[in-house]
Amino acid sequence: MSAGPLPASWMFRIVADVTLSFVSARGDQMRYLLASLLAICMGVAPTSGHSQWMEAKIPGEQHRAVQGCAAEVRKPGDWVCILVRCDEPRTSPSLHFSASGPGIRGNIKLVIDDATFTLSVPTSSKATLALSTRAETVPDNLLEAMKAGKALSIEGTDLTPPYNRISLENSRKAIEPIEQICARSRPSAASILRRLARSVRL
After folding, report:
1. Level-2 CATH architecture, domain 8-185
2. Which of 48, 44, 45, 37 shows the shortest CA–CA distance to 11?
3. 16-55 pLDDT, tens digit each
4. Cα–Cα distance between 111 and 153 in angstroms, integer?
5. Residues sharing a CB contact under 8 Å with residue 198, sequence separation 6 or more, in sequence order
6. pTM to 2 decimals?
7. CB 66: neighbour CB atoms within 10 A?
8. For residue range 127-142, what is the model confidence (pLDDT) as tens digits?
9. Percent of residues, the chain, with pLDDT higher than 70
10. Taking the CB of residue 24, how many other CB atoms lie within 10 A of it?
11. What is the three-state SS of the chain?
């Protein structure tokens, strides 16, 4: 009887171990390695990516980030993904962009159905994810629009259809747990008052 596919958690662990074993590589070789591994982790197929939002396919990110990727790509190893991530406790979720081509940077627009949101993605991004950039801020109501919308288009970059189009199918189910992770880390007004009262008594 033939063996079945490895569980996803095993695959992520193997990919992470391989990445660490090559951490001493430099320059283009390291970038090529990371790009190859990230393409595998993103789960983007040569002609069809994932149309639904799901947990991030980057090792170590499954519990604090979710991703939505272009549902159609034309070359093997290509991908364009948006990730919603809880970077730090007591902060709102952040928005990251990952693409196999030139990084998504500068002043861009996200068009969700009939709504348009302007974002600034710094050239020297603070993104901690491999081969990704991070939006400076997440506009008010952007995540709500993503959760309620049907499709998202990235404008103001060199991306052209179908690479700049990402379905928002299942986005609410994927994004809300990330918001809850960050919200649980934020102290409530009542807890802040209790801490202040305790400090005054001391």
Report:
1. Sandwich (2.60)
2. 37
3. 444 434 433 444 444 444 554 455 455 544 444 445 899 9
4. 5
5. none
6. 0.70
7. 25
8. 677 778 999 999 999 9
9. 64
10. 7
11. CCCCCCCHHHHHHHHHHHHHHCCCCCHHHHHHHHHHHHHHHHCCCCCCCCCECEECCCCCCCCCEEEEEECCCCCCCCCEEEEEECCCCCCCCEEEEEECCCCCCEEEEEEECCEEEEEEECCCCCCCCCCEEECCCCCCCHHHHHHHCCEEEEECCCCCCCCCEEECECHHHHHHHHHHHHHHHCCCHHHHHHHHHHHHHC
Residue with tokens 């595998």: 40
The answer to whether the Cα torsion of 30, 108, 74, 102 is positive or negative is negative
Indicate the pLDDT class of residue 199, thresholds 50, 70 and 90: low
φ and ψ of 70, to 5 deg = -55, 130
User: What is the Cα Rg of the chain in Å?
Assistant: 19
Rounded Cα distance between 137 and 73, Å, is 28
Tokens at 26, concatenated: 């430099």
Distance CA 165, CA 154 (A): 7
- Mean pLDDT calculated for residue range 59-73: 91
Of 82, 49, 55, 86, the closest CA to residue 153 belongs to 82
Tokens of 11: 């695959």
Lowest mean pLDDT among 74-78, 114-118, 186-190, 195-199: 186-190
Q: At what angle are helices 8-21 and 27-42 packed, to 10 degrees?
A: 180
Is 9 a residue whose pLDDT tops 70? no
